[in-house]
Design brief:
Length: about 140
């Protein structure tokens, strides 16, 4: 059961990343993006109803709280404005930061580990280190370690 929840949330994070990327970079409308059948999203694992619901929860929350989420990222991304980051890295960070700040049932360490793993799959070669560095700085800076 625990493993099923982990897999569901992992796939949900991947779907959320792809949807957020389409909203952010493709300038798509949230309702249109969420209506895309997740099974058609390239590179994503088995998308269950629960994974899609988790992805929708993340995307809706991130869009609703984007200014606060982005402000936290900008605060700890030394010498990097969020607008200069790759679209993939920016949206992986948004998912992780949202989970850390707003999703009480996800431990911060899990959100960070998941962000790094997703960066390995979808990001550039240096993305995992970049993302881990910003999230680690955030945790230290906010006294959450």
């Amino acid at each position: 059961m625990q493993n099923e929840i982990f897999i569901t949330r992992h796939v949900g994070r991947e779907v959320a990343l792809l949807w957020l990327f389409q909203i952010d970079v493709g300038q798509s409308i949230i309702e249109e993006v969420i209506s895309i059948i997740p099974e058609d999203l390239e590179g994503v694992g088995d998308v269950t109803i629960e994974a899609k619901e988790y992805a929708q929860m993340l995307v809706n929350g991130i869009v609703e709280n984007r200014k606060a989420v982005d402000a936290n990222i900008n605060k700890y991304a030394v010498d990097w404005d969020i607008t200069r980051m790759s679209g993939v890295d920016r949206n992986i960070l948004r998912v992780a930061m949202y989970e850390i700040e707003y999703v009480e049932f996800v431990p911060a360490s899990v959100a960070i580990d998941e962000a790094v793993e997703i960066a390995k799959k979808f990001g550039a070669e240096d993305s995992p280190k970049f993302i881990n560095g910003i999230l680690g700085a955030y945790m230290r800076g906010e006294g959450k370690n």
